[in-house]
From TrEMBL:
Domain Peptidase M1 alanyl aminopeptidase Ig-like fold: 441-532
The name this protein goes by in its record: Aminopeptidase N
Coiled coil regions, renumbered to chain: none
NCBIfam families named among the record's database cross-references: pepN_proteo
Species of provenance: Tritonibacter multivorans
The Peptidase M1 membrane alanine aminopeptidase domain, residue ranges: 222-436
Length: 853
C-alpha cells in the first residue's frame, strides 16, 4: 500500500503559495468500526463555503483509502479520485459531506495514520497522517470540533476531548475545542491506567491517566508527577490552565518520534514516558520529565494557538521547546540545563546549519514536511525565542506572551503574528530580528579587544556563510551578553547585553583602571560561533574564576578542544596545564557535581572533526579517536592517586531517587569510574555492576567494562536479566555498538541486526543499533567504508516499511564533505545506491538528494 516511487520529480510546496481553504468546517463526526485489517471510517462533515474564496475548489486529501461511498446532503455523489485525494462538485450553500472508507491498520508499518502496535490501535497524524484515516482538508488552518464514536471489542477506547456515552462495544468522545486534524488521536486496546487528579488554579477538577500495557503500570508514577508539575508550572509562569475534564497519556512501543500533543490524548513513545529506577537511567528520567512537560505545554502553544501552515512549524515547536527548557531549568539546575542544551545544539543543529541540509527555522519550501522536524526548527527555534526574551527583557516578554494568547486563542498563526505581539507591546521594530527566522546558517562572531588605560573596547564582526539557496546574508540582531572581570576574578562590569545590529560594531566600557578579562557570550546568549583569539592562560583563568557558569564551562571546553587539536595536528602531548586545571576542578567539592561532570566529559569526536574542518584540516577519524583515548588515558594516570578516593566520595548512598541532586552526583561518579577503569582493570566497575540496584549504576558500570573490553560476562548477564524488557534491551543493543572498537563497529552492528530480538519495524530498536553506529564517529567513518555500506543497506530495507524514520536517519551522512576524497567517494556510492532504489519514498528521496547536492 506504500506510495509508488515518484516517477516524475516530486512536488515542492512553497510558503509563498499559501491560500486559505475555500470552506470552513463547522463540525466533524466520525465513526470508527475497528478491525485490524479492515477498519471502516464513516465521516460526516459540515462545510460552509467561504465568501470570495481565492481557491473555491473542493479538494479533500486522502491517501491509501478505499472509498466505499460518498454523499452530499444525503444524496450519493461520485467524487473524482485524483493523486493525493479527491475532488467533487459541491453546492454553493453550506452542506453535509458524508463518506465511508476502509483502511488497513495492520499493514501500516509507516506508523502514520491509524496503525497497530502490539495489538493495540493507535494514531499519529502530525503532520499529514489524518489523510490516511479519511478524506479531509488535512491542513492545520482548518479547525473544527470533533465528535468520535469508536466501535470495537477493545476494553479501552480513547479519543480527544471529554468522554461521552460508552457501553458494550462502543465509546464516544467529544472535543469542544476547535482543532486541526493533525491533533486528532484514537487509541484502542487492552490497556491499564495509572490514575490521578489535578485541580486547576480556577478550581476545575481534571482526571489524569497514563495508559499502558498490562505490566507497565509500575512505571507510570514518575511521569504522572512530571505531568502535575507541568500543569502547575504553566499556571504559575505563563498563567495557562488546562481546559478539558480529562487529560490522557498513552504509551506506545512503535512510534516514529518522541511523543505527540494530540488534544487531551497525548501519545508517547513508551521510551519517553515509562520509568522505573530498575529500568531507567537518570538521563531517561530527566528526558521523560521534559517531554511530558513539552507535550503538555503544547496545549496552549500548539493546540489552542496552532500554525497556519507547516512552514510555521517553529511557531509552536520553538516556543514549546523554549518553555520546556525553562521548566527543566526551574525543576533542576539552570546552568546545567543551559550547558547541556548548548552541547546538544552544537552536536545536532550546528552540523545541520553548516551542511547541505541547512534551512531556516521557518523554511520556505519542502517536498516532505516530516523532513523538517529538525534541530533547526526545534532547538534553533527555541534559541531564537531566548534571544527575543534577552533583547526585550523578562517583563516585556511575558506581556507579549499574554497578548499572544489573548489575541490569537483559537487561531492558526504565522511568525508574523508572533513578532507583531512583540512589536505591539514593546514598540520595537522586529524587521531585522526576523532574519533569524528567514535565514539559514550559523553566524560567526569575531571579536577584537582594545584597552587604552581607561576605556575597554570590544569590536565584533559578524558573518554567515552561504547556505543552500541563500548566498548573501544580511547582518542579524545579536544579543551579546558580556561581563568584565579583574585579575582577582571579581566582576568589574556585571553581565550586560550588547545589542549588535551591524556587520561590524564596537562597544566601549569606560573608567577601567586595569585591563579587564572579558567574559563574552555569557549563558550562550545567541546561537553563534564565537571566534576569539586568546591565550590558554586566559582560558584557564576563566575556567577557574568566571562568575558565569556557562562561560566557565565554555572556557574548559575550548581548552579541551585545543588540547585535542594540538595532539592531532602537531603530535603534542596532552596539555599539562589543562590536565592540572581539570584535576583541581574535579576535586573542588564546593562545585556542583553535575557541573563538574560536564567539565570532565570530553568534546565529542564529531565536534573535534568539525573543529579541524573549520581550521582547514581534513579530519582523520582514526587520529581523532586515538587522541581521545590518549587524552583520557593520560588524565586517568595523572589522577591515579586520587581516583579511588574520588570515586568513593562521589558514590551516592541510600535508595535511588531520580532527582537532580542525585543525578548530578551519579554523573560525576560515573565519569570518575570511567577514568578509574582505565587504570584498575575494571575492578571497581565490576563491583559496581554486581551491587547495582538501579539502571543508572548498572549501565554505567557495563559501559565502563565494555570500553576496556572486559564486559563480556556482564553483558551476557545483562541480556539474561532484561531480555523481556524492550526498553532496556534497546540500551543493550546500543551499547554493544557504541562501545565497539572502531574497526569492529560495523560488524557488531551487522550481527545485531541478525539477532533474534532485532526488529526492523520497531523504530526504537532500529535506532538503538543503527543510530549508535551513526554516532560512533570512528566506527561509522572507518576507512573501510563498512559503516557507510551497512547504514545504506539497512536504510534501503527500512524505507520500504517506514519512510519517515529512514529519512531522518539519512542525516547521518550530512557531514560527508568534511572528510577526505576516499571517504567522500565511498559515501557518494552509498547515497547514489539509496537514490537508485526502486520505489524509494518521497521522504528519503528528498533527504538524499539534498545531502548529495
Ligand atoms: N509535535 C510533536 C512534538 O514535537 C512531534 C510530532 C512529529 N511527528 C512527525 N511525524 N513529524 O511534540
Ligand atoms: Zn513539540
Amino acid at each position: 500500500m506504500k506510495d509508488a516511487s515518484p516517477a516524475t520529480a516530486p512536488e515542492t510546496f512553497y510558503l509563498k503559495d499559501y491560500k486559505p481553504f475555500g470552506f470552513e468546517v463547522e463540525s466533524v463526526e466520525l465513526i470508527f468500526r475497528l478491525a485490524p485489517e479492515a477498519t471502516r471510517v464513516l465521516s460526516k462533515i459540515r462545510f460552509v463555503p467561504r465568501e470570495g474564496a481565492a481557491d473555491p475548489r473542493f479538494f479533500l486529501h486522502g491517501e491509501e483509502l478505499e472509498l466505499i461511498s460518498a454523499q452530499i446532503d444525503g444524496e450519493p455523489v461520485a467524487p473524482r479520485l485524483i493523486d493525493g485525494g479527491l475532488e467533487c462538485d459541491v453546492p454553493s450553500e453550506p452542506f453535509t459531506w458524508e463518506s465511508e472508507v476502509q483502511i488497513n491498520p495492520a499493514a501500516n508499518t509507516a506508523l502514520e495514520g491509524l496503525y497497530m502496535s502490539n495489538g493495540m490501535y493507535c494514531t499519529q497524524c502530525e503532520a499529514e497522517g489524518f489523510r490516511k484515516i479519511t478524506f479531509y482538508p488535512d491542513r492545520p488552518d482548518v479547525m473544527s470540533t470533533f465528535k468520535v464514536r469508536i466501535e470495537g471489542t477493545e476494553p479501552v477506547m480513547l479519543s480527544n476531548g471529554n468522554p461521552g456515552d460508552s457501553g458494550a462495544g462502543f465509546a464516544e468522545w467529544h472535543d469542544p475545542w476547535p482543532k486541526p486534524a493533525y491533533l486528532f488521536a484514537l487509541v484502542a486496546g487492552e490497556l491499564v491506567n495509572h490514575p490521578d487528579r489535578f485541580t486547576t488554579a480556577s478550581g476545575k477538577d481534571v482526571e489524569l491517566n497514563i495508559w499502558v500495557r498490562p505490566g507497565d503500570e509500575t512505571k507510570c508514577a514518575f511521569g504522572m508527577e512530571a505531568l502535575k508539575k507541568s500543569m502547575t508550572w504553566d499556571e504559575e509562569v505563563y498563567g495557562r490552565e488546562y481546559d478539558l475534564d480529562v487529560f490522557n497519556i498513552v504509551a506506545v512501543d512503535d512510534f516514529n518520534m518522541g511523543a505527540m500533543e494530540n488534544k487531551g490524548l497525548n501519545i508517547f513513545n513508551s521510551s519517553c514516558v515509562l520509568a522505573s529506577p530498575e529500568t531507567s537511567t537518570d538521563m531517561n528520567f530527566e528526558r521523560i520529565e521534559a517531554i511530558i512537560a513539552h507535550e503538555y505545554f503544547h496545549n496552549w502553544t500548539g493546540n489552542r494557538i496552532t500554525c497556519r501552515d507547516w512552514f510555521q512549524l517553529c511557531l509552536k515547536e520553538g516556543l514549546t521547546v523554549y518553555r520546556d527548557a525553562q521548566f527543566t531549568a526551574d525543576m533542576r539546575s539552570e546552568p546545567v540545563k543551559r550547558i547541556s542544551d548548548v552541547i546538544d545544539l552544537r552536536a545536532r543543529q550546528f552540523p545541520e546549519d553548516g551542511g547541505p541540509l541547512a534551512h531556516p527555522p521557518r523554511p520556505e519550501e519542502f517536498q516532505e514536511i516530516n523532513n523538517f522536524y529538525t534541530a533547526t526548527v526545534y532547538e534553533k527555534g527555541a534559541e531564537v525565542i531566548g534571544m527575543l526574551k534577552r533583547l526585550v527583557g523578562d517583563e516585556a516578554y511575558y506581556k507579549a506572551l499574554d497578548l499572544y494568547f489573548d489575541r490569537h486563542d483559537g487561531q492558526a498563526c504565522t511568525i508574523e503574528d508572533w513578532l507583531e505581539v512583540f512589536e505591539d507591546t514593546t514598540g520595537r521594530d522586529m524587521a531585522q530580528f526576523k532574519r533569524w527566522y528567514s535565514d539559514a546558517g550559523t553566524p560567526r562572531l569575531k571579536v577584537a579587544e582594545e584597552y587604552d588605560g581607561e576605556t575597554f573596547t570590544l569590536t565584533f564582526q559578524q558573518s554567515t556563510a552561504p547556505t543552500p539557496g541563500q548566498d548573501i546574508k544580511e547582518p542579524r540582531v545579536i544579543p551579546i551578553a558580556v561581563g568584565l572581570l579583574n585579575d582577582a576574578g571579581e566582576e568589574v562590569v556585571p553581565t550586560t547585553v550588547l545589542e549588535m545590529t551591524e556587520a561590524e560594531q564596537s562597544f566601549t566600557f569606560e573608567g577601567l583602571s586595569e585591563r579587564p578579562v572579558p567574559s563574552i557570550l555569557r549563558e550562550f546568549s545567541a546561537p553563534v560561533v564565537l571566534e576569539r583569539e586568546t591565550s590558554a592562560a586566559e582560558r584557564t583563568f576563566l575556567l577557574a574564576h568566571d562568575t558565569d557558569p556557562f562561560n566557565r564551562w565554555e572556557a574548559g571546553r575550548a581548552l579541551a578542544r585545543e588540547a585535542r587539536l594540538a595532539m592531532i595536528t602537531e603530535g603534542a602531548a596532552p596539555d599539562a596545564a589543562y590536565l592540572e586545571a581539570l584535576t583541581s576542578l574535579v576535586r573542588d567539592d564546593a562545585l556542583d557535581p553535575a557541573f563538574r561532570a560536564l567539565v570532565l566529559s570530553p568534546p565529542s569526536q564529531s565536534e573535534i572533526a568539525q573543529a579541524l574542518h573549520e581550521a582547514g584540516t581534513t579530519p582523520d577519524p582514526a587520529a581523532i579517536h586515538d587522541a581521545a583515548e590518549t587524552f583520557s588515558q593520560t588524565l586517568a594516570q595523572a589522577m591515579a592517586d586520587s581516583l579511588p578516593r574520588l570515586y568513593a566520595a562521589t558514590t551516592v548512598d541510600g535508595p535511588y531517587v531520580p532527582d537532580a541532586e542525585g543525578a548530578g552526583k551519579r554523573a560525576l561518579n560515573s565519569a570518575i569510574l570511567g577514568l578509574l577503569s582505565r587504570i584498575d582493570g575494571g575492578e571497581a566497575a565490576a563491583k559496581q555492576y554486581e551491587a547495582a540496584d538501579n539502571m543508572t549504576l548498572q549501565l554505567s558500570a557495563l559501559a565502563c567494562l565494555l570500553r576496556i573490553e572486559k564486559g563480556a560476562d556482564q553483558s551476557a548477564a545483562f541480556f539474561e536479566q532484561w531480555k523481556d524488557d524492550r526498553l532496556v534491551m534497546d540500551k543493550w543493543f546500543g551499547l554493544q555498538v557504541s562501545m565497539a572498537r572502531p574497526e569492529a563497529a560495523a560488524d557488531v552492528a551487522r550481527s545485531l541486526c541478525d539477532h533474534a530480538l532485532f526488529d526492523m519495524k520497531n523504530p526504537n530498536r532500529f535506532r538503538a543499533v543503527m543510530g549508535a553506529l551513526a554516532g560512533h564517529h570512528a566506527g561509522f567513518h572507518h576507512a573501510s567504508g563498512a559503516g557507510y555500506a551497512l547504514l545504506a543497506e539497512k536504510l534501503i530495507a527500512l524505507d520500504a516499511l517506514n519512510p519517515q524514520t529512514t529519512a531522518r536517519m539519512c542525516a547521518a551522512f550530512q557531514t560527508w564533505k568534511r572528510y577526505d576524497d576516499d571517504r567522500q567517494g565511498k559515501v557518494r556510492v552509498e547515497l547514489e545506491r539509496i537514490l537508485a532504489t526502486e520505489g524509494l519514498s518521497r521522504d528519503t528521496n528528498e533527504m538524499v538528494s539534498r545531502i548529495l547536492n
